[in-house]
Amino acid sequence: MSGRQTGTPVGSQGLTPVGSPNRVQRRTGQGLGTPQLGSPRTPLTESHGAPLSTGEPNNRSTFAERVYQSTGRINSRNGIGPFPDFYASSRDASAYTTPAALRGASVHSRDLASSTGSDLPDTTPSSVLSPGSLSRQSLVGEKSALRRAPPPKPPRTAASTTAEKGVQAPSSAIPAAVVDLPSQRLYALAILALLLAWKTYDAIGLAVDSGRTSFYLFVKWCLLDTALWYAGWLLHIPKMAVPTRAMYVLVAGSAFINLNLFFLSSSVLTLAVKPVAISVASSCLRSVKSIPWLGPRLVGDNDLLIDSFELDEEHILGRHTIHILPHSLAHMNPQGKCFCIDDARVHSEPWYWRYTSGILGQRHNSQTSIPILVNGTQPASITYVFTSFDTGQRQLRTVKNIGALQMEASAVYPTLGNWVMATYHLPINGIGAYEIYSVKDNKGLEFRTAAQAPQTIVVNCPRAKLQWRSDKNVEDSFTVGSDGHASICQRTAQIQTSTSETSDEGLIQVAAEGYEPMEMTIVRLVNGHREVINLDSILPQTVGDSVEELYKGLNETQVAAIEKWQQFRSRKSVYTISDTFLRPGEYVYKLEGIRDAANHSVALSNLGVKGVFDGEKVNESKATPYMARIQVYQRPSIGWADSLLNTELPLRISDDRQRKSQHALPLTLTGTGPWSVSYTVVDGADVVKETKTFTTAKGATIDAKRAGIYHLASVQDKHCAGHAEGTNISLVLAPIPKVNITATPITAHECGGEIGALIDLELAGRPPFAVHYRERNLRFPNSRPITRVVRSQQRRQSFKIMPELAGTYELEFFRLEDDNYPSGQPIATTIQQAIHAQPSAKLDNVSGRIPASACMGETLELPVRLKGQGPWELTYNVIYENRRTSKTITGIIDENYTIDLGAFEKPGDYTIELERVKDGNQCARDLLDVSTVINVREGGPYVGFKCPDGGVRVLDGEQALIPVHVVGEFPVDVRYHKVGDASEHVYKTTITRRSHSSAQADSVLAYGPGEYELVSTSDICAGTIDPQNARCSVHVEPKPSAWFVSDGLRRDDVDSHSTGILRLQESCEGAKLPGGFELGLSGSGPWKLNYRVDFWSASSPRSGVPGFTDRSQTHSLVALQNSALKPECCEPGLYRYTLISVSDERYQKPQALMSTHEAIAPDAGITVVEHVIASSPLAALRAYAPDGAPLDAAASRGTFRRKAPSIKYCLTPGQSLSDGDAQAWAKLHEHLPVFRIEFEEGGLAPYQAWVEVFPASGPSEVVHIRDIEGLSQSITLPEHVTSQIGRYHMRLVKTRDARGCEHQFVDPNEVGLGRPDHGGKAIAGGIEIEYIEAPNARPATSSPSANPSRDVCVGDVLSFDLRGLNSWNVEYTYNSARRTTTANKRLFRRVADVPGNFTLTRLCHRSANDCCSEFDDLSYSVHDIPRVRVSGGKDVHQDILEGDLVDIKMDLVGTPPFTFTWQRRSFGGGPGSSGKILESHTVKDLDSHAYTISTSSEGTFEVTYVQDRYCQYPKA
């Protein structure tokens, strides 16, 4: 087979749709898309869930397939699975090549069996196809040449038939990888909608323009439509492809539609579109014109408003409809409900509202009302009977202001006039029984009322509120704040038991009033837990007047009347809610609602059932009658802190100054601060009670100043009293430390006796201890004692004293310290011990330096200090390379001795160690760790210059360093001198040690340029100089310089001779500049130059004077050899160029240059030059009146304006030059303007000028004017050019002065071209003059304006024929209001929209607004349309009874005599139906303005036609 197939779904990658209830998975080894057998069978559904009918092909693709098709992915059929040819041979190849993920969950084993062969049984009557199976089946390519034996063919289905036909799936010409298919369809629809809107706009615009067609629009839309349909056929976007035949049909249809829309003036489509377009456009224009001030200026007198002007319908107003009515009915409370009112609100109203309710009606929407059902005419008054429950008396009340009552209409009967079925709501304000008495209409006719209707009962609405108990039995901790919320301390088991009698009565009460029995909903929220309180088990307490007090002073009749309604009276009850308050927190009570026996429910809280009791926070700052909050405060507690209980007890105090005389005992507090804590201190028989206040629980401590037992008694916080917890804390006084001191001598017989003492200390107190003593040698009585300290953590401590000097030592112990007494306690213990000291020796670094290094062959001296009884004998060792040499020195008398160490023969490390010393008493002592190491070096450092080729080169003024190479140990001294220096001074420098990784090399400082030579070097040993690198020279680089080369410069100006500054050749403004100033440079390039340009304008009186420049700028320039400085251009004047500084590759810092204008040496040293640019001759072409007044201030000079200033001259009608009246033209020519050429200062006379003149017709002509000596001269133009009717133009081409400087005003390529109307380019700049003939206007023959009487009516269109050049400015007055408008057509029309006077006063050409004609015979009187008012201009609907007579009045407005027609019609059958004409009458030549008709007939009376002396309505 071909190996490729388009449109393969995305599932070919093995993806399974998310959410599929039964996924068909891929089986490994079965090829792509091979499903597992045995998957459950479910019907295939689309994305929206509608199941597909089995057995019918589904041409709709799934979303995954559309995505896959949009990506343009192609899968190969070759090598799919292990049996590629097997799958290729199948007629329904898509069943195998389509992945299981896209065939859907419905493709199971049986479906596969039916589609692959007959070897698997087909148990389904019809095959179930995947959503994209048809399109995939049609894409089977060529069959493979090498086939394997396929299974039997599946049964032929619609899908397989379609596949056999080989229908190719549609694909877009635009690759889906570039733009996906949904986006292609979206873009195509957007383009189609845009073109349709554009065509509609063109069609409406053309239809509004009366009688106009457009061949251009017809051709344009034919081409656009053809391109559109051809693109649809060419791109063949799926689902939007245009077949070939359809494309031809659409192109032909579009051409037919375009022909009717744009080319045929009376086509069917044009006639259908035009009225709608005119109506829409005229409505928009009228809306804009209605905007005050701005609207008329934006819209003006548009032709569309004139064509669509319509007279308003107010000329005939009013109709009188007479209807004969039947009898009316009324019924109170038809549903038999019971009502309630808030008696407290009623009593709070002003007293006069009760008596004015019948007149003023309902006062607010929340007032209770009783419905009264009325079927008939509108009632005028309602009378009802009210019986009070309190007194039993009956009262008769009447409501006369029926219009103030709320009315709800339920049915309307048009055939009966104003007959309706409506419900009127009667407001009530008293508790009792109500019944209707009578209802009357405006004519006094009574309504029929329902017989034996029950009375309507109105009771008091139930109400309740929450309140706190206020009797004396409430416990003391209960308080009520100013905000209405209460608080109480937490009750404990003991408190609850002791206060059980009072707590059972509760703290909160519910006061309810209403028609009993009543039900209430009370909810309690305790720390977020919601529960409903049941009041069934609570016996209420009834309050109010007793029956005896109620009936007191009444007779039996009154008592019987009251007892009849006793059951409906309101009663008051009080319920007490009890609570234990054992848990601290917030208790919130909410009274949500109440319901009485008549099922009147009142929601008392606006929070509803959810609200705060669903875990939200209660936000009410104050209590309400329906919500109360009590805060149960937790009782505080107090105890010792854990940190105190974990320390070692008992605590101790001492009177030591370094120890505090008190302990801070930390506390643990709970509750709300501040706290008041009471505690006791027991010290034997003394008991002290103390109280302390804390504002915060953090850091709360009790200061224990005395010894004793501290006991916490009680605590009181901000709200409640609490209890104390914890054990007692004991505080004891610490004992004073003590010590017992014992001394034992240390004896050495070979040294002559005692050599030290052993001191034993026995300590009492709290460790650590410190024992202070003074040590003194009595052998030296004037010596200062030495103070020593012995520290110990134990209670027994021993230490030795073995001084080096002999004598009697006295140890004085004077102070003892422990932990409780760090300042110490004085002690007085003295011990004396005679000691014979041992000899000692050590290296003396005080009297002499101990050497650490030496050179080979050098001798050293090692200082030693001896102690003991002389003379001494000293033994020391010299260790070198693990060999030890021992030497002994005897007879040493002096304590300070020097050991002479002989010359070292070998390099290396030598260790000198003192081993033993013996004194004069033959007391010997071995010495430990008394030694030093001496490093013996073989030679000194090796030094030489690291001089670069050519020596060291430095910049002028910089420090020069000569690099050196050093081998040796640092620091190294180097001595060098300058060769040839007469003083022979030797310089010395020390090179310190540097890191091997340092990038900075060793160097010595050079003192000026010259050659330097190394003399010697040394460290601790003398070094060697490298003879090959012993010398190095230092050179200074020369500074860069720059100057102007004098070639090409001259001093030929007067000012230049006075200053001596060279100048470049003078140039003209706008001309090509000379090459520039040649630069001379020295140094190492490239160079950077800084120079200044001073500029003096050509008009400056102090040109060339420093300090008075018009402009001064500094520039930079990078130059190479043979560079030049380009001079400034464009603006005329004197330019002075001064070189300021220069830098090169070596000297990066700019080097200042001396300012001089004369060369110190040939071609060097000049840094100041000048250049002069002469001004070009500027001129202006001006026009003046014969009296010398300028006609145009903006003359032709410099850069021309795009449009030339125009001078126009108006000729009255009849003064035409086309008749050849040369004499009239010559007389007129005397008043024409005079043209002059005016030059500006700066040029050099004489001047020349070229002027180009464009006549009204024919080619242009250039006039050359020579020898203009002054700055101004008039121009005489050829008369054959300017003596023509119409417009001619003149402009300056160029000017030239005596120096040859020119100024070109016009491009030379544009000179000589014709006028724009002759095919040439537009004329820029210059002066234009035009001769115009004045316009004229006359009334159009077919217009009302041609009426000789000049009488017109409102709505008439006044038309005038305009003559002259197209586009006029028309001035007219309408009712003394002067208006100006623009007319672009020869027929000028205005609609007479208001009565008054219209006068066309003036007509002007727009191109020359001063060329006008005035009129005095075009004035018209505009008369108003007559008007008629039936019954005052209102639609009157009058209901009468049979036999009543009605007068219908008709008022006429206009100029008599009048003629009008009136008719009587029957009632219409429905909305919009006018009914049948029953009678019609015409009244003629009526001189009165009023007419009356008397009738008793039923129907609608109206006027259809009216006419006065001038006008009529409606118009014929």
Keywords:
mainly beta; 1516 residues; 7-stranded mixed sheet; disordered N terminus
What's the gist of this structure?
The protein is mostly beta strands.
How would you portray this structure in words?
There is one protein chain. With 1516 residues, the protein is mainly β. 14% of the residues lie in helices and 39% in strands. It is built from 23 helices and 93 strands. Strands 24, 25, 26, 27, 28, 29, 30, 31 and 32 form a nine-stranded mixed beta sheet that branches. Strands 14, 15, 17, 18, 21, 22 and 23 form a seven-stranded mixed beta sheet that branches. Strands 59, 60, 62, 63, 65, 66 and 67 form a seven-stranded mixed beta sheet that branches. Strand 65 and strand 66 form a beta hairpin. Helix 8 packs across helix 11 and helix 9 packs antiparallel against helix 10. The longest helix is centred in the first third of the chain and has 28 residues. The protein is flat and about 175 Å long. The protein starts with 62 loop residues before the first helix and ends with a strand. The N terminus is likely disordered.
Strand fraction band? Answer: 35-45%
Mean pLDDT: 77
Which sheet architecture does the biggest sheet show?
9 strands, mixed
Tally of individual helices: 23
| Helix proportion | 10-25%
The total strand number stands at 93
Taking all Cα atoms into account, the compactness measure Rg is 64 Å
Characterize the overall form. Answer: flat
Q: Return residue spans where pLDDT drops below 50 for at least 5 consecutive residues.
A: 1-169, 358-362, 496-504, 607-617, 995-999, 1054-1058, 1159-1163, 1193-1203, 1216-1220
Structural class: mainly beta
Amino-to-carboxy terminus distance: 84 Å
